[in-house]
Write a structure and sequence with these properties.
This protein has 566 residues and is α+β, with helices and mostly antiparallel strands. Helix content is 34%, strand content 27%. It folds into 2 domains: 207 residues; 340 residues, Glycosyltransferase (Alpha/alpha barrel).
């Protein structure tokens, strides 16, 4: 199977490629919190059109089938709308920025079948039933859970035919159920179809007649950068202060993921980035959506302070100083043991693993917080105190974690045990707090880590390839590979940036391979124009979440600095 992928600006092809043995998908995002994710035939229950209604994400349309259409032969990203070709048939998909609306258009009149599985995103049960009628010239689908759908087209007929849909992608990801009953809901006819979802009939009828225009993006020098910027910006939710961690299944605000993404987000939406930054630092001990604390959210947010301070007013800087002081006091009281920063089980970014005790990247974050606090201190005595805390902790971290050649991943103060598992977290530590080691010491550690973690296609595994727990194939929702083999694109991009900072000539091969692999995945694999979550170690693939915020953000940050685009 061969499919053509095109990235287009102002209807002009800028970059294109034919891909073999891949099933790329189209993914459109709306700052209303909605998304449209589609392949030729639905392969996952997370595909379809989803809208954020009643404080949750609801599946409105399960699938769209054009009668007599051929398989998908081309996907075109127009940066504002998406196009799909099936032989001579062209389909156009546009999500509204102002309402929960989808415009679906064809280049010729056809009969179109709309499938329903109307439910909350995570609900594994059957979709709810509906009533179908005409009101004020629009076709109304009134779902029995209080969600309304208005349809504007030439004609529509209610079919309401139950069928079983098999989801091979979910089975591959070990994400049950692998099949479920859906409804072939309505049969439509025409060339242009407008769908508006809402919480009331009045709401959907109020938007159904509004003008809906397809708009592409302006010119751009770099399509890969344009892709990453659009995919990151699309995860912002306009009516809330937050950034989705990823679509289709991480549609929550994860403080850690947001904090990592803030530097690049500031270039995309400065106002939103500031709002999110202050939301995070005002409560660095807040729990994430899964009910556990992000032990590194505060550390990442205060690292981002370095980037934001020049743009802050005096009152904002004072607020940062107070919040940082409060955070340090809370950390010293609740998360410090033997002078080291500790975290509880499943609280670091590798949250499928326990990784409790003292972890190397968490030490770097605490040290950076002390350094920042000293720089912001108003009184000499306060400045000296933080400098002393930084110096003493730095000595302790070096003593417990560094043997002269290797920087360990973890240490348990109570048991006085070292975790010598080789993981890529030392690169996060180097990014956050490069003062921990000398430049030459860091390079020795990098060399040893790269020997154990490097993947020939241009990435790093999350665990040494020689470790008994290493998994080279992504295991989906069965988390065996998640942090024990899978290669994370956000981390690969961060590693390239760190290697560039420490010795761009020495690590030129690794830097180039990483950035080439990330660009390949971003533009030509998975959801086209979106940077995914992970890849199997064995070969470069687009796996996990189709569009991940911190993957896009770290790609932008790495490209800008490595290629000196500032």
């Amino acid at each position: 199977m061969i499919m053509r992928i095109v990235h287009s600006l102002k209807q002009k092809t800028v970059e294109q490629k034919e891909v073999k043995n891949e099933i790329p998908s189209l993914l459109a995002l709306s700052n209303k919190g909605d998304y449209l994710w589609m392949k030729g035939i639905p392969e996952s229950r997370y595909e379809g059109w989803f809208c954020k209604l009643k404080g949750d994400l609801y599946k409105i349309i399960e699938g769209i089938n054009v009668e007599g259409s051929e398989p998908v032969s081309e996907i075109r990203n127009n940066f504002g709308y998406l196009t799909r070709k099936r032989g001579d048939l062209e389909e156009f998909f546009t999500l509204s920025k102002l309402s929960h609306a989808l415009a679906y258009e064809l280049n010729e009149k056809r009969r179109v079948e709309i499938f329903f599985d109307q439910r909350r995103s995570y609900d594994p049960g059957e979709g709810c039933d509906y009533d179908f009628y005409i009101e004020e010239g629009a076709y109304i689908v009134e779902f029995h859970n209080g969600i309304f759908l208005a349809i504007d087209c030439e004609e529509a007929t209610d079919i309401r035919e139950a069928m079983e849909r098999y989801y091979p992608y979910d089975e591959k990801r070990i994400s049950p159920p692998f099949s479920k009953k859906v409804q072939k809901g309505v049969s439509l006819y025409g060339k242009r179809f407008i769908f508006v979802a809402g919480e009331s009939k009045k709401e959907v009828l109020g938007h159904i007649r509004k003008v809906f225009i397809r708009e592409g993006a302006e010119e751009s020098k770099r399509i890969d950068i344009h892709c990453a910027q659009q995919s990151l910006a699309g995860l912002l939710v306009s009516e809330e202060t937050g950034l989705y961690a990823g679509i289709p299944w991480f549609f929550q605000f994860w403080p850690r993921d947001e904090a990592v993404s803030l530097k690049s987000l500031f270039t995309v939406s400065p106002k939103k980035a500031r709002e999110i930054y202050f939301r995070i630092i005002e409560d660095t001990m807040q729990k994430g959506p899964a009910g556990t604390m992000n032990a590194d959210a505060g550390g990442w947010a205060f690292k981002r302070t370095e980037d934001f301070l020049p743009f802050f007013s005096l009152s904002e800087k004072e607020k940062v100083r107070r919040m940082l002081k409060k955070c340090i006091e809370e950390c010293l009281w609740s998360f410090t043991e033997d002078g080291l920063a500790i975290s509880r089980p499943h609280e670091t970014w590798m949250d499928s693993l326990r990784r409790d005790g003292a972890r190397i990247e968490i030490q770097a974050m605490r040290l950076n917080m002390y350094k920042l606090a000293a720089s912001l201190a108003k009184r000499r005595s306060e400045k000296n105190l933080y400098m002393k805390m930084e110096k003493e902790m730095k000595e302790k971290v070096r003593k417990r974690f560094f043997d002269g050649k290797m920087l360990y991943d973890g240490y348990c103060p109570r048991k006085k045990e070292i975790d010598k598992s080789i993981r890529p977290n030392i690169f996060i530590a180097a990014y956050i707090y490069p003062d921990l080691l000398s430049k030459e010491e860091w390079k020795k550690c990098f060399d040893d880590a790269l020997k154990a973690l490097w993947l020939p296609w241009g990435g790093l595994s999350t665990l040494s390839k020689d470790d008994d727990d290493f998994h080279e194939i992504h295991t989906g929702e069965d988390a065996r590979s998640y942090h024990q083999g899978d290669s994370w694109f956000y981390l690969n991009n961060l590693v390239a940036l760190v290697l560039h900072r420490f010795d761009s000539e020495r690590y030129a091969f690794h830097i180039d391979k990483i950035m080439q692999a990330s660009k390949e995945e971003l533009m030509w694999k998975g959801a086209i124009g979106c940077h995914g979550e992970v890849s199997s170690s064995k070969e470069l693939k687009s796996e996990g979440c189709a569009n991940q915020a911190w993957s896009n953000a770290m790609y932008l940050e790495a490209v800008e600095e490595i290629e000196d685009l500032s």
